[in-house]
Design the sequence.
C-alpha cells in the first residue's frame, strides 16, 4: 500500500493542517487549540473537575495538568480543591476567561471556514459525521 493510501497517514496530515489553521486564528488571544477546548467546556459548564475535563477532551492527566497550569498562569482560570475530596480540583473561569467567549467563538468559526474551504456545507456535515462515527466506538 502506498503511504498516501494509508488512512492514518492522510488523516494525520489533515489534522496537522487543521491544527495549524486553528493555532493561527487563536494566537492573537494567547490561546492554543487545547486551551480553547478547555475554555469551551467551562463556558458550557463552569466548575468541572480536572478529571472531568480530561475525560471530555480525551486527554491523560499529565497533559491536562500542563494545560491547566499554563491557563492559570495566563489568568484564564483558577483551580480550587474540592471540599469533599482534596485530590479533586475544580476549574473555574476568571473574568478574563469568561471575556474570551465571544472573540474566541468568532475565531473558531473562522478557523472552521478556513479548514473546510474546499467543501460545500453538505460535504462538511458529512465529513464531520463520518469522523464522529470513528470516535463513537472507541474503546
Sequence:
Amino acid at each position: 500500500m502506498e503511504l498516501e493510501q494509508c488512512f492514518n497517514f492522510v488523516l494525520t496530515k489533515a489534522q496537522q493542517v487543521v491544527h495549524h489553521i486553528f493555532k493561527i486564528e487563536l494566537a492573537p488571544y494567547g490561546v492554543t487549540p487545547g486551551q480553547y477546548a478547555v475554555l469551551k467546556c467551562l463556558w458550557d459548564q463552569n466548575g468541572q473537575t480536572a478529571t472531568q475535563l480530561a475525560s471530555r477532551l480525551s486527554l491523560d492527566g499529565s497533559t491536562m495538568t500542563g494545560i491547566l497550569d499554563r491557563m492559570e498562569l495566563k489568568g484564564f482560570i483558577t483551580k480550587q480543591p474540592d471540599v469533599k475530596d482534596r485530590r479533586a480540583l475544580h476549574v473555574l473561569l476568571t473574568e478574563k476567561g469568561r471575556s474570551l467567549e465571544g472573540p474566541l467563538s468568532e475565531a473558531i468559526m473562522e478557523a472552521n471556514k478556513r479548514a473546510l474551504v474546499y467543501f460545500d456545507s453538505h460535504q462538511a456535515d458529512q465529513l464531520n459525521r463520518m469522523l464522529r462515527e470513528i470516535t463513537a466506538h472507541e474503546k
User: Anything to note?
Assistant: The chain has seven helices and two strands. Helices lie at 7-26, 33-44, 50-56, 61-73, 95-99, 101-115, 121-136.
